Each structure stands twice: as structure tokens, then as C-alpha cells.
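Weekly puzzle thread! Below is a chain. First person to post its structure in C-alpha cell form gets bragging rights.
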Amino acid sequence: MIRNDRQMDVRRLRMLLELSRLGSMHEVAAEIGTTTSTVSQAIAALSRDVGTALIEPDGRRVRLTPAGHRLAEHAVTILAAVDAARLDLDPDAEPIGVVRVAGFATAIRRSLLPVIDDLRNTHPGIEVRVREHEPPEALALLARDDVDLALVYDYNLAPEPWRSDHDTIALWEVEWGLGMPAHEPRAPLAAFADRDWIVNSRHTADEEVLRTLASMAGFTPRVVHRVDALELVDDLILAGHGLALLPRGRTSRRGVTVRPLTDPTVRLRGYAATRRGRDRWPPLRALLNRLPQV
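Winning reply:
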């Protein structure tokens, strides 16, 4: 039972939440810039505050007890509320600040660039700084608080397991199909079982989708090339070096076509992800309000 004569320190809760995520006091100390001893003392004090053990030995490391896991879940909501209050002290003020965005190239072009142009006219005090990253990289930056917004994607056949302390906004969806030389006839996916395949070099989601589709068609794809740039994927397809999943509606290189996939269809889904509670910060809110949503 939580003792009524003391209040839980926000910093201690943050350390507990990081411990639940990182699994090591040493890593928590490195993450927040303190010592392992300080983290240990903070967790011990938090245990005294709630009147129960929050960690237990696990070899040379420690792990959260069931009570520790439960409190870490509550910490997500508590810390989000604290962050929201801190960042939203004056919601009527003209938003001023630097909004750091990490995202994949398509979302930056499609969703972010028009917003930057609009903000330049309506809120000149907001500066948007852009970093191009695939979703795993962007979400890691968001988790470390190195960016304020991550533009990411998943597929309907490979959904992203979002973190409990992240909020997501669905932006748009794009159908994907089978990229192949235009001169080849339409055929069921199983007809390409003996072909080489090209997947993304910086993210595993499209490979997961490919393997799911191939499994349903009764074969295991032979992944030979791993490429990030879609233009290079086009070149490899045209040169006869493999097939790939590609977005439909995109202008591919002449000689490359993207056939539709059915039963099931494949859809890439774009999202805006923020840390819970941070979306009330006026500069970030001004940007989010202008993003097109489904």
C-alpha cells in the first residue's frame, strides 16, 4: 500500500520506467546521465514510498517485481501528465521553438514539407529541423528524446507494436504491389517462387510482408539484395536481378511495372508518433494540427 506521508518523486518514477525499458541500472544511469548508485538509491526510496519491493535479484542484474511492472505502467501516465503540464503552461501564447522531426523520405515529402511552408507564414517563431530515418531509427530517436516527432510506417501485414509511452496519429495509406519487368505477364505470386527478391536494407517490415505472402503462396523467398533507395530497386528489377514489393501509384522507371496484390492486399500505413503528453507543447501541436490525417 502506498504510504500517505510521502510523495513519489517524479525523477524516481522516470528511473523506474527507464529500468523497465532498459533492464539494467547501469544502462539507466548512462541514459539519464547519473551514477548507478544514484539509480539504485532512487529505486530503493521509491520502494519505501510504495511500501513494497519493486526489484529483485536476477543473477548479476535486477528485474522488476510484479509490483514494479505495475508501477512502471502507471508511471507512463503520471510522467505524461507532468510533461504536458510543464510544456503547456501558456497555451494561448504564440508558439515559438524548434521542433525536431525524424521520418522516412516519402512522409517528409508528402506530409511534412507542405506543413513547413505553411508554418513559415502562420507561425514564424517555429523552426522545423528534419532528419531522414527509417522507422526503427526514428522511433529510437524519439524514445531517447532526441526528436519531438517521428514520421513512421508499418504494413497491414506487419503491424508495428507501438510503445505504451508513445501516441500515434494515422496519416495515410498507400497500396503496395509486386514490382517486376513490364514485359512479363501477370501471374499468381507462386509463379515467382524460383526468382530472386529485393528487400529494404534499413527496415525489416517489407521483408516480413514478403515472407508472409510467400508463405501463403507455398514458398520461401530467396532474398538476394537489400536496398534502401527505390530508384535502385527499379534498376535492379529492370536489369533482371530480382523482384520486389513497391508502392503502387509511384512513377517507376520505364520498363518496370507494379502489379496489384490481392487476397490479401498490402497497404503501407503512415503515422505521426510522439511521446505521450508532448503533443500539447504549442509548437508541436501547431505542426500536428496541420498534418493531413485519414
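Puzzle host: Confirmed. Bonus trivia for everyone else. Residues 75 and 224 are 45 Å apart (CA to CA).
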